[in-house]
């Protein structure tokens, strides 16, 4: 049977990877200052302020740590998806992380925010990606052929 997932899985990996990478670049100020173009935060402080609205019951220092964990997780997931390294597990992690975002966003700022930000779509797409049998054009494929 022909592998009909070659191009769709590559496009999905890249789309999800970029979806995770751009907010990281935004909150680090790499994409520009807040208020310009489609910049959501523009710096770390604005991102932590938003994170505090999602977790109002946490102390500011804990919120900063949680923002750091989320940022590191998003960066690892972005790179893993784009290069196709441990793709199945990274996709599962992506699904779990986005589902966590859905829960925090829905309970603190309402259900419309995760809908507007496409978090439901990213979560479902990540779960779907984890079920693809082979990841063509990936580190996983190189490792599979070498084994």
TrEMBL record:
<dbReference type="Pfam" id="PF07681">
    <property type="entry name" value="DoxX"/>
</dbReference>
<feature type="transmembrane region" description="Helical">
    <location>
        <begin position="115"/>
        <end position="132"/>
    </location>
</feature>
<feature type="transmembrane region" description="Helical">
    <location>
        <begin position="65"/>
        <end position="83"/>
    </location>
</feature>
<dbReference type="InterPro" id="IPR032808">
    <property type="entry name" value="DoxX"/>
</dbReference>
<keyword id="KW-0812">Transmembrane</keyword>
<keyword id="KW-1133">Transmembrane helix</keyword>
<feature type="transmembrane region" description="Helical">
    <location>
        <begin position="90"/>
        <end position="109"/>
    </location>
</feature>
<protein>
    <submittedName>
        <fullName>DoxX protein</fullName>
    </submittedName>
</protein>
<dbReference type="GO" id="GO:0016020">
    <property type="term" value="C:membrane"/>
</dbReference>
<keyword id="KW-0472">Membrane</keyword>
């Amino acid at each position: 049977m022909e592998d009909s997932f070659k191009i769709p899985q590559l496009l999905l990996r890249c789309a999800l990877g970029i979806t995770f990478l751009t907010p990281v670049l935004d909150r680090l100020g790499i994409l520009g200052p807040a208020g310009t173009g489609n910049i959501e935060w523009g710096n770390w402080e604005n991102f932590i302020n938003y994170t505090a609205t999602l977790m109002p019951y946490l102390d500011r220092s804990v919120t900063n740590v949680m923002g750091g964990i989320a940022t590191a997780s998003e960066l690892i997931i972005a790179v893993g998806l784009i290069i196709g390294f441990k793709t199945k597990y990274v996709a599962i992690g992506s699904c779990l992380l986005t589902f966590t975002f859905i829960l925090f966003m829905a309970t603190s700022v309402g259900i419309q925010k995760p809908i507007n930000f496409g978090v439901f779509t990213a979560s479902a797409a990540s779960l779907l990606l984890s079920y693809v049998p082979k990841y063509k054009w990936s580190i996983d494929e190189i490792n599979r052929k070498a084994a």
